[in-house]
Amino acid sequence: MTSEFVRLEVADGVGTIRLDRPKAMNAISIQVQDELRDAAAEATERADVRAVVVWGGERVFAAGNDVKEMSTMSYTDMVDRVDALQGAVNAVARIPKPVVAAVNGYALGGGCELALAADVRFAADNAVLGQPEVLLGITPGAGGTQRLPRLIGPSKAKDLLFTGRFVKADEALAIGLVDRVVPAADVYAEALAWAAKFATAAPYALRAIKETVDRGLEVDLETGLSIERQAFSGVFATEDRTTGMESFIENGPGKAIFG
Ligand code: CO8
């Protein structure tokens, strides 16, 4: 497996999916898409990864799909590629563990869509987000037309998608596109600290909560509540439940260490 531009770095229960293609502002070429999908699969499979940070380094998160590469692709090229292209970002969205995007600098187009695939987004005060695809005469292709309106509402999403305008960190926070804004030098450390909370947290309960929230957002309330009932019953079969409740009774709340 090649991993020239995307690697999974694991320490203390947290996996960092690190984009590292600085000469092209971390542009998400076909190779980057494939490496991203592989890193997400590794983060999903590894038991020593309990939470994930997605980070592009101190200068840029990702300036979108690789426009130079895309400019040579025909309609049929894209028909052949589009599942894998979107699948790379979907693979991050489907990591069954808490995922935080740490955004320094630009998160544009596919870069913004990658941030949208995380559960929460922390932005540096120098972050700039946006979906400028329309300015290239194309649409978003990795969830921007779907995850963005679900996150910030259809009107705000359409404003960003129709105009392609860039949003600075303070506006991104105000419209709910990011969850926290911190000094640029601190954003990765803040994201790591958030993810580290889950290094000894209940993995099966977290997995069930994430799946229930994400699936619940796609269905009507009754179906969502039914999914919740199944999840709730299901966790009673897990070691997490035994560990958590025994620890509460013996030591009080919030002290359980989950294996
Ligand atoms: N693709 C390829 N190369 C890029 C990209 C990109 N998206 N962004 C920047 N680069 C390259 C530049 O061409 C330049 O290369 P070189 O030094 O060889 O000329 C280098 O990175 C530095 O860029 P700039 O000189 O432009 O740096 P600036 O600081 O002046 O500007 C910007 C930075 C604002 C980020 C500017 O480069 C820009 O607007 N980039 C394009 C942003 C964009 O339109 N993104 C959307 C792309 S379309 C898309 O993402 C569709 C999503 C489909 C799904 C994705 C699935 C993963």
Automatic annotation (TrEMBL):
Keywords, sorted A to Z:
Lipid metabolism, Lyase
User: EC number(s) in its UniProt entry?
Assistant: 4.2.1.17
The record's top EC class is lyase
| Catalytic reaction equation(s) | a (3S)-3-hydroxyacyl-CoA = a (2E)-enoyl-CoA + H2O; a 4-saturated-(3S)-3-hydroxyacyl-CoA = a (3E)-enoyl-CoA + H2O
Q: Which Gene Ontology molecular-function terms are recorded?
A: enoyl-CoA hydratase activity
> Does the UniProt entry include the keyword Glycosyltransferase?
no
Q: What is this protein called?
A: enoyl-CoA hydratase
Record organism: Nocardioides simplex
